[in-house]
Amino acid sequence: MSDVRTASTTDTDWVRRYHPSARPAVRLVCFPHAGGSASYFHGVSAALAPEVEVLAVQYPGRQDRRAEPPLRGIEELARGAVAALGPWAEAGPLAFFGHSMGSMVAFEAAVSLTRAGLAPRLLFLSGRRAPSRVREENVRLRDDAGIMAELRELGGTETALMDDDELREMILPALRADYHAVETYGPRSGAAVDCPVVALVGDSDPRTTVEEARAWADHTSGPFDLRVFPGGHFYLNERVGAVLDVIGARLRSAD
């Protein structure tokens, strides 16, 4: 594996390293949910370091990138991530973890890297149905109150921020763009990976059923595993320890 300083020269606005490790066994790339940001994974980074170094993806239009226009397509988000992650993939093994919208971005990025001969070692896809399981959704067409109602129903970490007028105005443009990306996403024909895939889902998620999550098996030629946790769409907020146990065990077995 190349020294981490070699890869760090390729850092872009897309990658955050909260706990750099000189020689990690693997790097776990984490892709946030709609409206989410890289800092959502700060605690995960601390918990897994130094054996696993977390690279948290920061999408345009939020936090320190809030001056940039948010992107409105999953493919656009994946292309930006792939451009930043390509050199990291060449420097050493990567695994991907995505939650909700992040699962879609992670999958598209993994497909692109696989075609380039840089497939991730493992792909963890959380809180999102497989691309082959389609629902009609229109959150992107709602007014601001409608989008906030969706957030409150799902129970995401941004819900409390919606009560602050200034913060709400900062978050809503990126959030609306994210919902546009999610609801207009259509994977390329035959899009699949060849690495192991682990799907994770809450047993009472209103946006993804267990069977819809199980359908991710159709999008890999590698091994597939499904893990079901008690909880809703953001089950992982209450089950951090259990989720990290799954991630750690699977990364160690892959190694």
Automatic annotation (TrEMBL):
InterPro entries: AB_hydrolase_fold, TEII, Thioesterase. It holds the Pfam family Thioesterase. Keywords: Hydrolase. GO terms for molecular function: hydrolase activity. The keyword Hydrolase applies. Residues 27-250 form the Thioesterase domain. It comes from the Bacteria. GO terms for biological process: lipid biosynthetic process. Gene3D superfamilies: alpha/beta hydrolase (3.40.50.1820). Belongs to the thioesterase family. PANTHER family: S-ACYL FATTY ACID SYNTHASE THIOESTERASE, MEDIUM CHAIN (PTHR11487:SF0), THIOESTERASE (PTHR11487). This is Alpha/beta fold hydrolase. The lineage of its organism: Bacteria, Bacillati, Actinomycetota, Actinomycetes, Kitasatosporales.
